[in-house]
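Lab notebook, bench 4. We co-purified these components, and the gel suggests they stay together. Before we commit to crystallization screens, I want a quick structural picture of the whole thing.
Request: model the full complex, all chains together.
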Amino acid sequence: QVTLRESGPALLRPTQTLTLTCTFSGFSLSTTGMCVSWVRQPPGKALEWLALIDWEDDKYYTPSLKTRLTISKDTSRDQVVLTMSNMGPVDTATYYCARIPNAGNYFDYWGQGTLVTVSS
Amino acid sequence: QSVLTQPPSVSAAPGQKVTISCSGSRSNIGNNHVSWYQQLPGTTPKLLIYDNHQRPSGIPNRISASKSGTSATLDITGLQTGDEADYYCGAWDSSLSAVVFGGGTKLTVL
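Here is the predicted assembly.
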């Protein structure tokens, strides 16, 4: 059974750095073709893809946020970590981690999401 | 401004058919597979379609999709009130080396 769970702070102050952890089970990120990604959704708005890390530790970022994002994995702990620097109110959103199987470009399993609010 | 273009909303009566379009370019839909997601109010997105037209197990065959050139469509027949949700298309963009989504389409079953 594949599960993913996001964890991290619910509230951040402007300019702080967000660190989110995706803890997953039911698959291994060392399996050929496996990837984990982060997607966010501001309240009432559309999905926005953020970053992806694959089984070979290759990393991809959305161009508009590339300078602020870092994605990493700890295969032994079945975790993927996303950091986003210089957070602002516009970054208030629900952040999801999701699995991409078979080196595809679709998300077959999603975490429940974690709401991050940026406010002074 | 999303890379993939979807109509903001569509509506149809129960039992009818609705089509949701997703328009892109050669670098995304034109050369890569399309996926579709359903997001019921207050819930997590759910995969409906992958690889342009493939349904994961558990997705009923009244939900179908296709791709032609740089556009894709999602069809839902036999509409039910439980189909009211936001629907998103997604694809890999080879020029951006990034996943791109549409802006989402809100389906209302009248």
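Chain B is about 0% helix and 45% strand. Worth comparing against the SEC data before the next meeting. The beta strands of chain B are 9-12, 18-23, 34-39, 46-49, 63-68, 71-76, 85-93, 98-101, 105-109.
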